[in-house]
Design a protein that fits this description.
By secondary structure, the chain is mainly beta. About 5% of the residues lie in helices and about 45% in strands.
Length: about 130
């Protein structure tokens, strides 16, 4: 069974940092892209980042570029979202997700076009709440 779990959220002051973790099980973690999304209160879920192991690329939404960094730990089947210089507008529930369709592994070009859409991903973990106070 494919499982994803996001953790590491909490309350932090503006300008501070948090590191979120996404731990995975039930699939070949090294082969699949992992996306990060967030959902602010009363708003839709939107893209944050995606790491695509097939081509080694990582994508970020414009509002987090230069502040957020994604990394992978293959030994721990984990992806991390390091969030620095946090702003109140970063307050949201953060989710990690992946896309697994049978034995197919979607490659870099697919994620280059589609990483930012929630419908690209069919497995989602429970989110973790990040609250940034001003």
């Amino acid at each position: 069974e494919v499982q994803l779990q996001a953790s590491g959220g909490g309350l932090v002051q503006a300008g501070g940092s948090l590191r979120l973790s996404c731990t995975a099980s039930g699939f070949d973690f090294d082969a699949y892209a992992i996306g990060w999304f967030r959902q602010a209160p009363g708003k839709e879920r939107v893209r944050v980042s995606c790491t695509s192991p097939s081509d080694g690329r990582t994508y970020y939404t414009d509002s987090v570029k230069g502040r957020f960094t994604v990394s992978r730990d293959k030994a721990k089947n984990a992806v991390y979202l390091q969030m620095d210089s946090l702003k109140p507008e970063d307050t949201a529930i953060y989710f990690c997700a992946t896309r697994i369709i049978g034995d197919r592994v979607d490659l870099g070009p697919f994620f280059r076009r589609n990483w930012s859409y929630t419908y690209t991903y069919n497995h989602w973990g429970q989110g973790t709440l990040v609250t940034v106070s001003s």
